[in-house]
Amino acid sequence: QVQLVESGGGLVQPGGSLRLSCKVSGLTFSLYPMNWYRQAPGKERELVASIASTGSSTNYATSVKGRFIISRDNAKNTVDLQMNSLKPEDTAVYYCNTWPAYWGQGTQVTVSS
């Protein structure tokens, strides 16, 4: 079956960096666009970043543009999210996602001093 497994979350100080990774199995990874979503307490889940199946194009939420970078390795079936200049408002559970409705279990990111 299809599995998406996130890793790399944790506690970081404001201004710091974290790199999230999502390992995908059970589908032909190179054919699927991939997304990172996040959900903060009491808020709706929001799309953070997307990457095309070939990695040729990316899109970002306005709130993270210029700070986050999404990338993928189709040989390793992984998609990463490099998060820089982190802010307290980036605190959320981050989820890996692909079409039609495959989700990982999420990884907690907490930005706090």
Summarize the structure.
The chain is mainly beta. The protein is built from no helices and eleven strands.
Q: Topology, please?
A:
Layout: E1 3-7, E2 10-12, E3 18-25, E4 34-39, E5 46-51, E6 58-60, E7 68-73, E8 78-83, E9 92-98, E10 102-103, E11 107-111
Parallel strand pairs: 2-11
Antiparallel strand pairs: 1-3, 3-8, 4-5, 4-9, 5-6, 7-8, 9-10, 9-11
Structure description:
The protein is an all-beta fold and 113 residues long. 0% of the residues lie in helices and 50% in strands. It has strands at 3-7, 10-12, 18-25, 34-39, 46-51, 58-60, 68-73, 78-83, 92-98, 102-103, 107-111. Strands 2, 4, 5, 6, 9, 10 and 11 form a 7-stranded mixed β-sheet that branches. The chain is globular and about 40 Å long. The N and C termini lie far apart (40 Å). The model has no long low-confidence stretch (mean pLDDT 97).
Q: What labels would you give this structure?
A:
single chain, 113 residues, mainly beta, seven-stranded mixed β-sheet, four-stranded antiparallel β-sheet
Q: Would you identify the regions where 5 or more consecutive residues have pLDDT less than 50?
A: none
Q: From the alpha-carbon coordinates, what is the Rg to the nearest angstrom? A: 13 Å
Distance between the termini: 40 Å
Largest sheet: 7 strands, mixed
Mean pLDDT equals 97
Number of DSSP strand runs: 11
Structural shape: globular
Structural class: mainly beta
The ordered string of helix (H) and strand (E) elements is: EEEEEEEEEEE
What is the tally of helical segments? 0
Bin the helical content: under 10%
Tell me the strand percentage band. Answer: over 45%
